[in-house]
Amino acid sequence: LEDLQDAFDFCFKVHYQPGQDKNRDPQYTRQLQVLQAKLQNLDQQRRNVLAQMQQLLGRSETLRELLHQELGDWRERQQRSCLGAPTNTQLRPLETWFTELGQGLFQLQKLLRALSELRMKVTYERDPLAEETPLLQQRLQEQLKHLLKSAFVVEQQPNTPNPCKRPLVLRTSSKFSTRARLLVRLHDRNHRMEAKIHIDRDPPKIKGFRKFNILTSSSKTLLAGDSPQEGLICDFQYLTLKEQKDSRAGKGSKGASEGPLVVTEELHLITFTLAYAYCGLELELETSTLPFVIISNNNQLSSAWASILWFNMLSSDPKAQQFFSSPPLAPWPRLAEVLSWQFESVVERGLSRDHLLMLGEKLFG
């Protein structure tokens, strides 16, 4: 396109000399016809390039929808793995697909900018670049934003280093860790990307809902490792939580913990935010953990774990912090499957049909 445009521009400046005398010159008329043919060819090539870009954007939308479905399947597998299910939660294949789609879209962005520069040099009436390039840029920006926002995920749910294999149950004053990952491995090394964590950023409107502070550093600069295989990771380790005390609580009062939900049914969330910038695009990305329970004593562990089991077994909304305000019933086949996962995660062997029948009789008679 650039070569065609330069050739047309040169011929136009040399040969196009409008005037009454010139218009009667047969040689000048032939030169105008050659110029018109060059312009028509340039116009057709511009339309061809724009049509190819439209087609590529349509295919990338289809691919992005497929990746969204794959990511949803991965989230379900991760949720089941928290309950002890034997399932694969590796992110490497998804990371590869997300990154390659991101590279393709950012390459299209560079080409669209190059087309805009060409239009600044040569334009004409009904120029397709003037009409279609802004619409393509808007469509491309929307695709990039959707891709990047969905590519920011929690790779490791909040977890304490205990031998009981009980993720999503945290204890005040005890250390825990959590990690998020950006699946699009593209970043500007000259731009400082800061990741932050917030606990209960948008708390539920429940009377007595406890509030907590993260005592250790709640922000980190996200740095890619020397190897591109390491990915873009926000790894927060050795975090601790401390409950905010309600100054209005009187002596002998339960204070902030007084409310309709017991401590072991109170669900909390950690939200990651990331200031992302690459190739002129700047976004704030956000992702949240699964709900977790915060306890202060080990004798609350069993009840807290029961809440985590019940939520992840039955809830389709990962942010439903008021789930236990009206908890649903669980069908026995679903509960039996989860109990079998529990045994398998600890002793590497699930429950047989006879085992489950015996447990069912114990529960239901």
TrEMBL record:
The keyword Transcription regulation applies. GO terms for cellular component: cytoplasm; nucleus. GO terms for molecular function: DNA binding; DNA-binding transcription factor activity. Residues 32-59 form a coiled coil. SUPFAM superfamilies: p53-like transcription factors (SSF49417), STAT (SSF47655). One of its GO terms (biological process) is signal transduction. Residues 157-295 form the STAT transcription factor DNA-binding domain. It comes from the Eukaryota. Pfam families: STAT_alpha, STAT_bind, STAT_linker. Residues 1-143 form the STAT transcription factor all-alpha domain. Its main location: cytoplasm. Residues 320-365 form the Signal transducer and activator of transcription linker domain. It is found in: Cytoplasm; Nucleus. Keywords: Coiled coil, Cytoplasm, DNA-binding, Nucleus, Phosphoprotein, SH2 domain, Transcription, Transcription regulation. This is STAT2 protein. The lineage of its organism: Eukaryota, Metazoa, Chordata, Craniata, Vertebrata. The gene is Stat2.
